[in-house]
Known about the structure:
Helix content is 37%, strand content 21%. The protein is an alpha/beta fold. The protein folds into two domains: 6-71, Glutaredoxin (3-Layer(aba) Sandwich), CATH 3.40.30.10; 85-171, Oxidized Rhodanese, domain 1 (3-Layer(aba) Sandwich), CATH 3.40.250.10.
Amino acid sequence: MKNHNIIIYSTPTCPNCMKTKDYFNKNNVSFKxxxxxxNPEAIKEMIEKSGQMGVPVIDIDGKIIVGYxxxxxxxxxxxxxxxxxxVLVANGAIxxxxxxxxxxxxxxxxxxxxIPLDILESQIPSIEKDxxxxxxxxxxxxxxxxxSILEANGFKEVYNGGNCNKLKESVGGGIxxxx
Length: 179
């Protein structure tokens, strides 16, 4: 694996900072941690790089990631396989949440499309066929059925992401405010 220059701007109490550092440690990736909680110069540097006042801010060879984003980290570092759902999402896969509108509005993954299972077939013409698709729902049952429907209609790269909340957690995206 290529050596990268990695800096993490973090605070000791930020759970997403801890997740990011754990990610690097589990993958044997070296990084420099800068605690911004009591360092005004580091805060200024972090804001100049990212435009953000939330942590973690990760600088990988000059590319900035804000928040815990394992898919983006995998992509930049060449980790994970091309079928890992977080890598697929980082590379522009379409996430289709097949729950009802009410379930979707109660909480959903950022940038996911809500196409309830009962209208999925009628919406197939509006779905891009050249991108990977990840289906999700509450338990994985409806998303499994949706995967079958899409494959039967000519979609080649479809994955059952299962539970939407677990998929959202594995993909990441959390930031914490700097206090």
